[in-house]
Amino acid sequence: MANVKVLVAKPGLDGHDRGAKVVARALRDAGFEVIYTGIRLTPEQIAEAALQDDVNVVALSLLSGAHNTLFPKVVELLKEKGLNDVLVIGGGVIPDADIPGLKAAGIAEVFTPGTPTSKIVDFINANVK
Amino acid sequence: MEIVDKLLNHSRLALSKAITAVENEYDDAVKIMTEIYPHTGNAYVIGITGPPGAGKSTLTDKLAKEYRKRGKTVGIVAIDPTSPYSGGAILGDRIRMMDLTADEGIFVRSMATRGSLGGLSQKAGDAVKLMDAFGMDVIIVETVGVGQSEVDIVKTADTTMVVVIPGMGDDIQAIKAGILEIGDLFTINKADREGTDKLNIEIEMMLELNPEHVGWRPPINRTIASKGEGIEAVVDSIEAHKAYLIDSGKLNDIRKKRIKNEVEAMLNDRVNRYIDKEVIQTQEFDDLVVKMQSREIEPYSVVDDIVGKVLK
Amino acid sequence: MAFEEIKAGLEKYHAEVEAKLVKNPERANLVPNRLYTPVDLGENFDYMTKLGFPGEYPYTRGVQPTMYRGRFWTMRMYAGFSTAEESNKRYRYLLANGGSGLSCAFDLPTQIGYDSTDPMAEGEVGKVGVAIDSLADMEILFDQISLDKVSTSMTINAPASVLLAMYIAVAEKQGVSADKLRGTIQNDILKEYAARGTYIFPPKPSMRLITNIFEYCSKNVPLWNTISISGYHIREAGSTASQEIAFTIADGIAYVEAAIKAGLDVDAFAGRLSFFWNAHNNVLEEVAKFRASRRVWSKVMKERFGAKKAKSMMLRVHTQTAGSMLTAQQPNNNIVRVALQTAAAVMGGTQSLHTNSKDEALALPTTESVTIALRTQQIVAYESGLADTVDPLGGSYYVEALTDKIEAEAWEYIKKIDEIGGAPEAIAKGYIQKEIQDSAYKWQMEIEKGDRIIVGVNKFTQEEEAPKNLLRVDGSVGKLQAEKIAALKARRDNAAVEAALKALEAGCADENVNLMPLILDAVRAYATEGEICGVMRKVFGEYQPHTTL
């Protein structure tokens, strides 16, 4: 029985956790095991938590505009720790223009405001390794 | 096995992947456990249980830090219930332990109950063994004290601590029935709240009535875990209990009993799975059920028959 | 008055409508009743106790006698990004274009008491607001803006004392004395714990800082609004309208209790308490919310705290249109949403208003989009007629019934929170957070099931090109601020800084000391915000959030 484990985390200083919490609950209701780690985390804390819980997915949420710095940093640290097949997704107030850069840095998909949670569930199911 | 070598060489990634293997029942899980078994038996295992909202994870976080201060490495297995509706779970303990991630001497693993009754205690037990083999000095298993399987898990610990909080009203009655008798020590958390003294007296009274505690009287500590108050005393009590178990020779008995329980559970599990696969899920069995329903045959000789075949 | 006649007529009307519903069905999921009549207000609806007159208890119809017939609300645009230099330009632009007050947005490191060079600040410097590290930045921020002429609102909470001290120090340098300063600090820590997340210290020292500010300002900065008790972020986090005002007023009760406990007379500070509401999408519900909130607060102040002065009982409110209701899809639609939200705030009787820009679901607003948002307020003020009479919806059967309903729901929550032991305890137990989250989840599921329509999101969607010309704040701000801090530390009198910080540390350890003068001394010596908050972190510790899902 291999359940999908998802770490939902907010890197940086942004305290807007409405979206992260709604997504965490929706993922639980879709049958995933969700580890919600709260706000104000460093990329290192997120990567280490992902390692210890051996999660399949890391879902990052950020509304402050610091995504270009912090999202790639999480990916980098995951790789450094040997977690090469973790699916990393991101969400928040993220301009379209930033998305190609984030994808190139290893963020599998970016979900902007207005995305239904079912779309995130579908994406995880289709892409989780 | 490579993964076992790496685990014994302190690879955190290998430890994590090995726990996943037992948790998900991967094919190599049994082989991993077989190979690490000789390297286990060194860690001291603490079980923590109590009602939801008692502050167990915050307390666990603080206890881990106190043990680190005392030079011990700490493994934590934090168990949360799986939703019976969706099969999903919110594993909410880690959020109270996020600053532990900065410490190489600590490893926290969240586990969901996944509705598996007997299987959970075995999986949690295996996770403890893996952390033990990895070299953790102290391993804390933390779980909500509802449901028998969770109680089974903490019962296998060397020291079991029950956490309660004041102001739960009649809840104390429910807890009494279930988990109070398994506590080697009690911690009243959130002890700055009204009702702490009353709760203390209630536990005292209950301990008076319990004849099992000969030679060791469970101490009752008070903490305010969120402020880190009273933590040292709790660790002192755990250590005192450990010393008592060693001096009295009871630690040996506990661990012997644990191995017995584990093997018994493994046997039951194996037999159950075998019967399920070879008997229950067969067409032949379905046919028998139909015949029983129409009263052509009766179940007692059917069971005799099957047992005769299975346990030949 | 033929009340019975109306009742009978109403029954007849409903019966006739119901009979035809199969042929002429109504839309699904409608929350309000079909029709509102005097029956909904009850036979004994008492105008004087429920409504009264504008500027009179219980202030349902507004806090001033003539409302916007005298002066419009303050058009206060929330702004700030990048460096103090950049933000200063935006402020002067807004003032030159008819903005009547300033509203400072600080970046997250500033809001959480970190210098731009702190490792925790990585990636965040200058992003959601302006980066302020020391008095030197604050001097640049208000360069060529006379602080005796403008009223300034600062969205700052945990380190509110530090930023207020910087503002006072800038004024000193301009030759403006503190008693001339007008403006507001948000200073509302309870909603940070519950909904917004920019807390630093645990509740007890945080409440002390707040009462220290109340006391200091009542003597030295008498025109300053010392707190803006905020429902805005509670609503943004997903609460309902009733929850927004109930949780916020419960927070307000906690602040008043803390100040009274600290020995202040209620009428000495209560007149400087202000509130901050969200203007959400449902126009009439929002109008009712504003009206209900004034009624509840005035009763709380009069009956619970025995306030005597009229000013102590008035709920004066700043409003911002709902940021979370802006959509990234078809962003031009947001202009319309903001216009309706503006109408709600104005008909609700707000004292000041920030209107969001259409592109804020995508990035920080450009100058062009900010201008549209400001013009929206001006159109509502000058063209719509909504501001020409006081409380224009007073007497509407629907709005009065809705006002009563929201008031009743708010009292219910306040009672529940009292039973738990007050707002701080309800937050410590996670009760308020859980209520908000449940509402947020319900809202999202309604959208996903199609029970709630958001135009352009789950209906009337269309393919569109990515919007262009978004405002970008690049990473160089962090570097720039780091250089500024290094230069400052080289030129300031470091011995004086150290002495001031030492005095502050000693003050923190003694609960009877008012920290405002000590913070002001440290600010004047050009201690950085991170240094000042660092000292307080050392003594007070940091807040550990209670997170439930």
UniProtKB/TrEMBL annotation, chain A:
Keywords: Cobalamin, Cobalt, Isomerase, Metal-binding. One of its GO terms (molecular function) is metal ion binding. InterPro entries: Acid_CoA_mut_C, Cobalamin-bd, Cobalamin-bd_sf. It holds the Pfam family B12-binding. Residues 3-129 form the B12-binding domain. The keyword Ribosomal protein does not apply. Its cofactor is adenosylcob(III)alamin. Gene3D superfamilies: Cobalamin-binding domain. PANTHER family: COENZYME B12-DEPENDENT MUTASE, METHYLMALONYL-COA MUTASE, MITOCHONDRIAL-RELATED. This is B12 binding domain protein.
